[in-house]
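Sharing a chain and its predicted structure for anyone who wants a worked example. Both blocks are below, sequence first, tokens second.
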Amino acid sequence: MNSEQLVNIWFEKWNSGDFMNLPITYSFEHTSPFGIVKGKKAYIDLIKEKEKENETKFLGYSFELQDTLYKLESACVHYTARQGPDFCLDVSEWYYFKNNLIDKVIAYYHIGDIREERLYKS
């Protein structure tokens, strides 16, 4: 399976809510502005926990891919995640592959207000 196929399966599984069958390794690692989750079991358990607590944190999104870059052992995808009429989030993610599975995802997105001192001055 090539990198484009793996990324497409990743998004198909999220679109359908089938997170239990994500194409990830047992040593999978997910890094985001919220922190790092290490291990497939820990990642799936986190989704299950959040699904019960508040499913909107992980499920119910639609994804519009904006730009993609596929390489042999990695890929980068810029997409817009939408949930309902009022929420959208622009995300860039790097995917790294091992043994025809996703071994690591590093997600970049903005999760809050920018502090005043960090704003550009004109």
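Comments welcome. DSSP finds two helices and six strands in the chain.
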